[in-house]
Design a protein that fits this description.
single chain, mainly beta, Jelly Rolls, 2 domains, 6-stranded antiparallel sheet, 17 strands, 0% helix, globular
Length: 215
């Protein structure tokens, strides 16, 4: 298994409340070990292939391309991802720290496959995954959207000056805020009201944002 880790790294320890953002790929059977999360929300978004999820009680859920998993763990919660034999998988992993004093459940698990909408007037397909327009909800108030360009064009996203955001390129040729950005690279956003994307057909960007921590 290989992982492209945006953070935490030596140069980018975190971007709180984002604690981890990574794109992973497995090309053979990988038996992930059960591990724990406390005071965190964990998001797994399957870009390609098949993944088996196991919770601490031994229950399993199959994730396929387009599937989304949201694990809320206020108290210690164990889980693992396992690759299916003979199949490859590629996925995004996001870990967000839960706000202190929030009303998050002790533990909850959401597994779903959001519907892919039709092409918008700007030539993009915006699949709302988590948040006000998406089918999944989080205790961290995370907003998460997959934007794909069907034809060359420009589109705009609202961010909010009270939020921190990550625009991560999944594929294609294009730019974020007029800066060329290749697959596997990202822009970290803070104190921005909006975000502009320009891309050729096939450009695809995952955008996540969450309220900025109170100092």
């Amino acid at each position: 298994m290989t992982a492209h880790l945006l953070f935490p790294t030596h140069n980018e320890p975190s971007f709180l409340p984002f604690q981890r953002f990574a794109e992973s790929m497995a090309t053979s059977r990988k038996k992930g070990e059960l591990h724990s999360h406390v005071g965190e929300e964990v998001i797994t978004y399957v870009l390609e292939g098949y993944i088996d999820h196991e919770d601490g009680s031994g229950n399993h859920a199959s994730l396929t391309q387009g599937s989304l998993l949201v694990l809320t763990a206020r108290d210690e919660t164990r889980h693992a991802l396992r690759m299916e034999r003979g199949r490859t998988a590629r996925w995004l992993s996001i870990v967000v720290r839960l706000p202190a004093g929030g009303e998050a459940p002790s533990a909850s698990l959401q597994v779903l496959t959001p519907e892919r909408p039709s092409v918008g007037s700007d030539g993009t397909i915006r699949t709302a995954l988590i948040g006000s327009n998406g089918p999944a909800r989080t205790s961290s108030d995370l907003e998460f959207t997959d934007i794909g360009f069907v034809k060359e064009g420009t589109t705009f996203l609202r961010v909010g000056r009270d939020r921190r955001g990550i625009a991560y390129v999944l594929s294609g040729i294009g730019s974020v805020n007029d800066h060329s950005l290749e697959p596997g690279h990202a822009v970290l956003l803070e104190n921005r009201s909006g975000l502009s994307l320009n891309g050729e057909a096939g450009y695809r960007v995952a955008f996540a944002s969450v309220p900025r921590p109170v100092a």
